[in-house]
Design brief:
Length: 119
């Protein structure tokens, strides 16, 4: 059974899924070199239409998700500081088991965010 990696973005200011948020998935090498794996956007449910990683794509290692939150809030004309307090939110995490499901949600406002490991 192969695992998968997914995400979900929730806008805590407006109380809804965050649609059209740019997300980049990066693999982080031992020497800290970053390799862009893919760029996706959230749909109307705040999720991506395809999994971030699935099946043979998932490897043990360190990854980063970059969420472009200031662009999202600007598109809704949400009041932000200039420059934005949160521009892009990076979440660095590890995948230790390729047969597990990893879900990395982001709950976000222009001033704060939280995440956790889901499945």
């Amino acid at each position: 059974m192969a695992g998968k990696l997914s995400t979900h973005v929730l806008d805590t200011v407006h109380g809804c899924p965050a649609q059209n948020v740019q997300i980049e998935l990066w693999a982080i090498a031992e020497d800290e070199q970053k390799n862009l794996i893919k760029t996706l956007y959230t749909n109307q449910d705040g999720r991506t239409d395809e999994l971030l990683l699935n099946g043979d794509e998932i490897k043990i290692g360190i990854y980063e998700l970059w969420f472009y939150v200031s662009d999202y809030f600007a598109s809704l004309a949400t009041i932000q500081s200039e420059p934005s307090f949160l521009s892009k939110v990076p979440i660095r995490f590890g995948i230790a088991n390729i047969n597990s499901n990893y879900h990395v949600p982001l709950l976000v406002s222009p001033w704060a965010y939280s995440t956790y490991r889901g499945s």
